[in-house]
Amino acid sequence: MRRLTHTTILLLLLLLCSCRKDAPVDQIGSDIKIRMLETVDSTKRKLQFYCSTEKEYSCSNYGISKTFSKSSDNFDIDFNGIIISNVCLTSFGPATTTIDLGTLSNGTYNLDIKCREEKK
Known about the structure:
This protein has one helix and seven strands; from the N terminus they run αβββββββ. It has one helix spanning 2-17; strands spanning 25-26, 32-40, 45-57, 63-70, 74-83, 93-102, 110-115. The protein is mainly β. The longest helix is centred in the first third of the chain and has 16 residues, at 2-17. The strands form two sheets. Strands 1, 4, 5 and 7 form a four-stranded mixed beta sheet that branches. Strands 2-3-6 form a three-stranded antiparallel beta sheet, with no helix packed on it. It is globular, with a radius of gyration of 19 Å. Strand 4 (63-70) and strand 5 (74-83) form a beta hairpin. The chain starts with a helix and ends in a 5-residue tail after the last strand.
């Protein structure tokens, strides 16, 4: 019975401390570096953008809030801010995000990148 109580308390704590969808978002205030990565498995090849801020933060698990949409020949990326995690991994590092472009056919694609402007 005591073990069941400890397990229940542990599960409740994990639920309360898990990532929330309404995590605080801070302004970017830094350039964003974008690298293209290709992953290959036995059936297909996928492209991804790995994005990171030039600025390093005191927590290495900060993310970049973004919206991404694609159509037949357009990719639209909006960088909205820095996602501040509730739990801090105490090593310095940039805020990061990965954007999965999926499998693309040969061709030319338009890329529109926007970064939310800081309001003063």
